[in-house]
Design goal:
435 residues; two-stranded antiparallel sheet; mainly alpha; single chain; Growth Hormone, Chain: A
C-alpha cells in the first residue's frame, strides 16, 4: 500500500471511532440543560449515557461474530446508519413531544447504542487485518488518538450546539455519519480472508479455546480497558457538574475545560502508538505505568482541594489513559488470528462500553458520600488493575498464533531442486534455465 493510500485508509477508519465517541462525550456538557428542560433527577439524566453504552456492550459480541463471518465493512456501514438514525429519533422526539420526550429520547439512545456496537471495535479489528508488523501498533495508536480527539472536540462541540438548543446535539449525529460511511465503503479495501461457514456454537467453541490459552492476559486487558474508561467518563461527568456549581463555568468555556484531560489523553495515545511498534515488553509496562499514574493522580485529589492541583491531576489521569489504551488495543488485536479477531476485539469493545456506562452513575452515587471517597475509590480501582496487569499480562501470551508449518523449512519445489543441482540459477528470486 502506498503512503497516500495508507493516509486515506487510516483517515476513513479513524472517522469511525471519532464519531462513535461523540455519542456520549458530546452530550456531557448539555446534561444539566437536558435535566432542567425535562425536569429530571441526576440519576435519570445519567441514564442518557448508560442506556447508550449498555446496549452497545451487549450487542458488540454479535457484531464481532457477524464481521468475522461476513466481513467488517458489511457490519460497519449499516451500524453507522443505525447510529445516525437513533439521533434522528431522539431529536424529533424532543421537537414534537417537548417536556414528555424523555422515554422516546431514551429509545433513540438505545438505538444509537445498538448501532455503535458495530463501529469502533470492528474498525479496530479491520485495522488489525489491514496493517501488520510495526505498522499495526502505529495504526492502532492513530485509531485510539482519533477516539481521543473525538473526546477532545466533542465537549466544545456539544457546548456550541447547546447554545442553539439542548437537543441540537441529537440532530447533529446523522450529519457526521454520512461522510464516514462513504469513506469506509469506498476508500477502505478489506483484505480477503477465509471465512468459515461454521455454526455459532462451533465458532464460540473456537473462541473459548483462545481464552483457555490466554485467559489471564485477555481478561486482565479487558479489565484495564473497562477501568480506564469508567474512570475517564466518571471524572468527566463529575467535572461537568463541578465546573457549573462550584466555578460557575458553563457554555463553551465549560466545554473547553472538559476537553483538557482528554486532550492530554489524545496526544499521549498518538505518541504511544508511534513508540510501541512491536515492543511487547514495553507495551505491558506502559499499561502498568499508565494505570498507576491514574491511581496516583486521583488519590492525591482525596487529600488536597486546590483548583490548580485538580486540573493537573485530571490531566495526569488523561496521560495515564493515553498510555494504557493504545497498548491494550495492540495486545488484543495481535494475540488472536484474523479469523477470530472480530469477536475478540468486540468483546473487548463491549467491556469498554460497560466501563463508560458505569462511570457516570457510579461517580454520581459516590459524589453523595464526599469527594475524597469518590477519588479514592477510583484510585483504588486503577491501582488494583495496575497490579493485576503487572502480574498477569505475560509477553509470551501477546504473540499471535503461528501460521501452520511455521518454523519448518518448506520442501524444495522442482524448479528449486533444479537450481540446487546446477540446472538453473536464481536471479531476483526466479529460476532461469541455462541456455
Amino acid at each position: 500500500m502506498r503512503k497516500n493510500q495508507r493516509v486515506l485508509v487510516l483517515a476513513a477508519l479513524s472517522g469511525v471511532p471519532f464519531i462513535m465517541v461523540l455519542g456520549n462525550s458530546m452530550l456531557i456538557p448539555v446534561l444539566p440543560a437536558i435535566r432542567d428542560a425535562l425536569n429530571l433527577t441526576q440519576f435519570r439524566v445519567s441514564l442518557l449515557i448508560t442506556l447508550f453504552s449498555i446496549p452497545a456492550g451487549i450487542v458488540i459480541p454479535l457484531a464481532g461474530f457477524l464481521s468475522d463471518r461476513f466481513g467488517r465493512k458489511k457490519v460497519i456501514a449499516p451500524a453507522l446508519i443505525l447510529y445516525g438514525l437513533g439521533g434522528v429519533v431522539a431529536g424529533l422526539a424532543a421537537i414534537f413531544f417537548k417536556g414528555g420526550a424523555y422515554p422516546a429520547i431514551l429509545g433513540g439512545r438505545i438505538l444509537q447504542g445498538i448501532g455503535a456496537a458495530g463501529t469502533a471495535p470492528i474498525a479496530m479489528a479491520l485495522t488489525g487485518d489491514i496493517f501488520a508488523g510495526r505498522e499495526r501498533g502505529t495504526a492502532l495508536g492513530i485509531i485510539e488518538a482519533a477516539n481521543g480527539l473525538g473526546k477532545v472536540v466533542s465537549p466544545v462541540l456539544g457546548a456550541l450546539l447547546g447554545l442553539i438548543t439542548w437537543y441540537a446535539a441529537f440532530l447533529f449525529f446523522p450529519l457526521v455519519v454520512v461522510p464516514v460511511v462513504l469513506g469506509v465503503w469506498f476508500l477502505v479495501r478489506e483484505p480477503e480472508s477465509k471465512r468459515e461457514a461454521q455454526h455459532l456454537r462451533q465458532y464460540l467453541h473456537s473462541i473459548t479455546r483462545v481464552f483457555e490459552k490466554k485467559s489471564a492476559m485477555l481478561l486482565t486487558s479487558f479489565l484495564g480497558g473497562a477501568a480506564a474508561l469508567l474512570i475517564l467518563f466518571g471524572v468527566l461527568f463529575f467535572l461537568s457538574e463541578h465546573l457549573e456549581t462550584v466555578f460557575q463555568v458553563n457554555g463553551v468555556r465549560k466545554g473547553a475545560a472538559l476537553a483538557i484531560p482528554v486532550l492530554f489523553m489524545c496526544v499521549t495515545s498518538y505518541l504511544t502508538g508511534r513508540v510501541i511498534k512491536r515492543r511487547l515488553a514495553l507495551m505491558k509496562w506502559l499499561v502498568v505505568v499508565g494505570l498507576a499514574l491514574m491511581a496516583g493522580s486521583l488519590a492525591s485529589l482525596g487529600f488536597f482541594q486546590n483548583t490548580y492541583l485538580f486540573f493537573a491531576a485530571v490531566s495526569l489521569a488523561g496521560v495515564g489513559t493515553g498510555l494504557t489504551l493504545p497498548c491494550l488495543n495492540t495486545i488484543i488485536t495481535s494475540a488472536t488470528a484474523a479469523e477470530r479477531r472480530g469477536l475478540v476485539t468486540s468483546l473487548y469493545g463491549g467491556v469498554r462500553f460497560m466501563g463508560v456506562a458505569l462511570g457516570p452513575p457510579l461517580f454520581g452515587v459516590l459524589m453523595g458520600h464526599g469527594l475524597p471517597v469518590m477519588f479514592w475509590g477510583a484510585a483504588g480501582l486503577a491501582g488494583v488493575t495496575a497490579l493485576l496487569a503487572a502480574v498477569l499480562i505475560r509477553v509470551r501470551d501477546m504473540r499471535g498464533p503461528s501460521p501452520a508449518g511455521a518454523g519448518k523449512e518448506p520442501a524444495p519445489s522442482p524448479p528449486a531442486k533444479a537450481a540446487l543441482s546446477g540446472e538453473a540459477r536464481p536471479v531476483y528470486g526466479l529460476a532461469l534455465r541455462k541456455r
